[in-house]
Design a protein that fits this description.
The chain has helices at 6-31, 35-45, 49-70, 90-106, 111-119, 123-140, 150-154, 156-159, 182-187, 192-212, 215-218, 221-242, 255-260, 262-265, 287-298, 308-326, 338-357, 364-369, 375-401, 407-417; strands at 2-3, 87-88, 174-175, 245-248, 251-254. It is mainly alpha-helical. It has one domain (2-388). The strands form 2 sheets. Strands 1-4-5 form a 3-stranded mixed beta sheet. Strands 2-3 form a two-stranded antiparallel ribbon. Helix 6 runs parallel beside helix 17 (338-357). It is globular.
Length: 431
């Protein structure tokens, strides 16, 4: 996908992000593909249907990325965010993942589901998205008139502490000698592509086997369609964002490299983007992009602030709205009571902090990040599922046992149910 000028090339990136996201939004609404719902079905009913749909999406994205990367057709090494960075921020991946998992349970859905609900008329989700957007924005960008961010004030001193030589000394951060993707860690830089193909192929095919051995899954059109479209959407986004170039007098430039040399290559300031990182190869994630939408609004909706992520957010909402109107399922929904409001508020706050800290959400890390085989993505994925599952267990036991179930008792019993503690520590009878 070669263009002769930057404006056309960037427009293609933005509209491809929107178009694929629109299809994904419509299909996710139609099929009820929901990562929090997948965890809920598993924890509360032992139903793995939607969990298999999630795994199916991961398998498609992972197999597609390692295959295309072996042919030089996608560039996850240059991704934004940098999933394969050599600094493993495992503490942030785990803590952020737990926060996000708890938050999405309290707020009735992850980032993607929040956008789907907005398209379906859920005003509660507009509130959730606004809270997430403000927190996500100020986690990365400084408060007006200062150089301080929420991340620098609340997390940086203890998650990424540095010594005088700028070396990580926090036990929550590990400076690796290689990139953190499994292929590079196992085989080294020289053989990384081949190792990724093998490792990603084995993991992806194993997931496919787990998914398709289920007769129930094979008979569910919605679960198959939902997983297929989400996985392909992530793969297509990687492909489009990795293969856009600008040809100037026989010299090829990527969007990011062109923007870095803007003063030498461009004839005027017209069309200059506000940020370069967002022009890198990438795929779908939704928490940081919600913050970018807030930044766009702060900038007076200046088109220079439009990014792949922003267009993805708009695309998912538009696709969900389109399906809601076609099927006449559009319904205005507001908070049921004060407790419902507080649950969504706390959940949104935790998702805002956790999604940025973990560097992604149930799509951004569990599908997009996992497709790069990044160790941090797998840690974030597992932590999100654990945080959500444990929250559901605590809520369930407190609802059934009421005053008898203190938080501590419900927590211990939930950990026993999830087989993370021995049964001798159970405090409440299983239900």
């Amino acid at each position: 996908m070669e263009f002769t000028n930057f404006i056309d090339a960037r427009s293609f990136l933005l509209w491809s992000a929107f178009g694929v996201a629109l299809i994904m939004g419509a299909v996710v609404n139609k099929t009820n593909f929901c990562t929090m719902g997948a965890v809920s079905d598993w924890v509360n009913m032992g139903d793995l249907g939607r969990m298999r749909a999630w795994f199916f999406a991961i398998a498609i994205a992972m197999l597609g990325v390692v295959l295309l990367e072996s042919f030089g057709m996608v560039s996850p090494d240059k991704a934004f965010p940098p999933y394969r960075a050599s600094t493993l921020i495992w503490g942030e991946n785990v803590i952020g993942g737990l926060m996000f998992g708890i938050g999405m349970t309290l707020a009735s859905g992850c980032g993607n589901k929040t956008l789907i609900r907005i398209g379906g008329g859920n005003i509660k989700s507009i509130f959730v998205a606004l809270v997430i957007a403000i927190i996500a924005y100020y986690m990365i960008f400084p408060f007006p008139g200062t150089d301080k961010t929420l991340f620098s004030e609340l997390f940086l001193p203890w998650t990424r502490a540095l010594n005088d030589a700028s070396e990580a000394v926090s036990p929550l951060t590990v400076a690796l000698t290689t990139q953190q993707d499994l292929g590079t860690m196992v085989a080294g830089k020289e053989s990384a592509v081949t190792a990724r193909l093998v490792i990603g192929g084995v993991i992806g095919l194993a997931l496919m086997f787990v998914v398709w051995k289920s007769k129930e899954f094979r008979s569910s059109f919605d679960n198959i369609l939902g997983g297929l479209v989400v996985g392909l959407a992530v793969l297509l986004a990687w492909y489009f964002s990795s293969n856009i170039s600008i040809n100037l007098d026989g010299t090829s430039h990527t969007l990011a490299s062109y923007a870095q040399e803007w003063d030498f290559l461009a004839e005027s300031e017209e069309g200059k983007p506000a940020e370069i990182r967002s022009l890198s190869p990438q795929s779908y994630t939704f928490i940081n992009p919600m913050g970018q939408v807030f930044g766009l609004a702060k900038a007076g909706f200046d088109s220079a602030y439009l990014t792949f992520g922003i267009m993805a957010v708009f695309g998912v909402i538009a696709g969900s709205l389109l399906w809601s109107l076609i099927t006449r399922s559009f319904r205005i929904e507001w908070f049921a009571n004060r407790q419902d409001f507080l649950n969504h508020l706390v959940g949104a706050i935790l998702m805002g902090f956790g999604g940025v800290l973990a560097m992604g959400c149930t799509i951004g890390q569990a599908v997009t990040g996992a497709s790069t085989l990044a160790l941090g993505s797998f840690l974030a994925f597992g932590s999100i599922v654990l945080g959500s599952a444990l929250t559901m267990k605590i809520q369930y036991y407190k609802m059934v046992y009421e005053d008898e179930a203190t938080f501590g008792k419900a927590l211990l019993t939930g950990l026993v149910d999830l087989k993370l503690l021995p049964s001798s520590l159970r405090k409440l009878d299983a239900i």
